[in-house]
Design a protein that fits this description.
This protein starts with a helix and ends with a strand. The strands form nine sheets. Strands 9, 10, 11, 12 and 41 form a five-stranded antiparallel sheet that branches. The longest helix is centred in the N-terminal third of the chain and has 21 residues. By secondary structure, it is mostly beta strands. The protein folds into two domains: 104 residues, Sandwich (Immunoglobulin-like), CATH 2.60.40; 330 residues, Methylamine Dehydrogenase, Chain H. It is 5% helix and 49% strand.
């Protein structure tokens, strides 16, 4: 008994010594800023510890926090001409530094890039900040470095354009001239899987994801200096049957993939700092026949899927802790035509869907913040067979790629009602299929 007591006293003393060494040491809180172009950004943690990132990249607060302590990162001062939003910004310290805070900075769209499947080209435009109208960039259209480009994304820092080439099984990388918007090849295309159909970059601008429709996989690449990328260990990853679109939540914690042939949504957790994906419990989640496109609201709370064959839109709530999806009340929403594209505006107030009420129309729906349910606001005619719709970062304009008419429709958005009004129609190349905004 005396021996046991003595051991207990020694163990307690050792614990006190460890705790004493830890007090004041603690763990740091930091992450990544993307898209920062303006000056004056000030971040704050727990209403007192400030950080002043001068450029995009990593940041860390100087004051540390002990295990069990809370952290809360906010924007104290916005940079000039931009709006920055914090994701993964609050929580409780465990036994490691916090490194996954993401601060995303945006400004009104400057350039639009349209991939033309039929002409193997990328049309580039300058965006008029007042009207949303498009003007061709000098040198546009730019030749694709692959065959049959079908999807594109601009990285969060606005430095590179990534284009998925369906028939050459690769991804082209273009450097974006920050002044003119012109494109130049940034090296050899990145080899992907068979039939790449969708492409995205994670919110921290660290990883490139490619959905390969023909071999039903997702390839994951670590982005390197110069925009090049190398496959990570374990890539490619199985991703259901015929993946057609992908989105992450705003913090880059989860990846959601529509599987066209299965009529489902596959959900994956993303390993912080590594980019690898793992299916979450309950995945895949039922959607509708021909699940084609997915949109995530800017809070990471709701997801909406366009089901082309079923002629429905499915709505889900997202468990922000696990990434699991649950059906929303009022869904699936029956549509009068086959929906081809969906997106949510940057403020999370409106859902936009192409070919919903009738063919060749874009429809806006108001989103109820508490429930995710939607109510129709307006419908406006666009071009023939609208396949893609994007909203510029200011939320003022919608851009629609019309494959069969070879055009881009531009519409203004009433911020109070979500109502759409035609701005104009602009010529693109043959079979425009996807739009990316910088």
């Amino acid at each position: 008994m005396r021996t046991m007591v003595k051991i207990g006293i020694l163990a307690a003393a050792a614990g006190l010594a460890i705790a004493a060494c830890h007090v004041g040491g603690g763990y740091t809180v930091g992450g990544t800023v993307t898209g920062l172009r303006g000056s004056g950004l000030v971040l704050q943690n727990n209403s007192g510890d400030n950080s002043r990132p001068g450029a995009s990249g990593s940041f860390v607060f100087t004051s540390s926090i002990d295990q069990g302590g809370a952290y809360s990162v906010t924007v104290l001062t916005q940079p000039s001409g931009q709006t920055c939003v914090v994701h993964n910004g609050s929580g409780t310290i465990g036994t490691a530094d916090i490194t996954n805070v993401v601060v995303t900075c945006t400004q009104p769209g400057r350039f639009a890039y349209v991939v033309n499947q039929g002409s193997n080209s990328i049309s580039a435009y300058s965006i008029d900040a007042a009207t949303g109208a498009l003007s061709p960039v000098a040198g546009s259209p730019f030749a694709s470095t692959g065959t049959t480009p079908v999807a594109a994304v601009v990285d969060p820092n606005g430095t590179y354009l990534y284009v998925a080439n369906h028939d050459s099984n690769n991804v082209s990388v273009f450097a974006i001239d920050s002044t003119s918007g012109a494109l130049s090849s940034a090296g050899e295309p990145i080899a992907a899987g068979s039939g790449p159909f969708a492409v995205l970059v994670d919110p921290a601008d660290q990883f490139l994801y490619v959905a390969n429709m023909t071999d039903s996989t997702v390839s994951v690449f670590a982005i390197e200096s110069g925009g090049t990328a190398q496959p990570i260990s374990g890539s490619p990853f199985a991703a259901g049957n015929q993946p057609t679109s992908m989105k992450t939540d705003p913090g880059g914690n989860f990846l959601f993939v529509t599987d066209y042939a299965d009529g489902t949504v596959a959900a994956f957790s993303i390993e912080t700092g590594a980019g690898s994906i793992a299916a979450i419990g309950g995945s895949p989640f039922s959607s509708g026949a021909g699940a084609l496109a997915i949109a995530i609201d800017p809070t990471g709370t709701f997801a909406y899927v366009a089901n082309e064959t079923a002629k429905t839109i499915t709505g889900y709530s997202i468990n922000t802790g696990t990434g699991a999806l649950a059906a929303l009340s009022g869904f699936p929403l029956s549509t009068g035509s086959s929906p081809e594209a969906v997106t949510v505006d940057p403020a999370g107030r409106y859902l936009y869907a192409a070919n919903v009420i009738a063919a060749n129309e874009l429809t806006s729906f108001g989103i109820t913040p508490s429930t995710g349910e939607v109510t129709r606001a307006s419908s406006v005619g666009v071009g023939t067979f609208p396949l893609c719709v994007v909203i510029d970062p200011s939320g003022q304009f919608a851009y629609v790629a019309n494959e069969d008419s070879g055009t881009v429709s531009v519409l203004s958005i009433d911020s109070a009602t979500g109502a759409l009004a035609a701005v104009g129609t602009f010529a693109a190349g043959s079979q425009p299929r996807s739009i990316a905004i910088d």
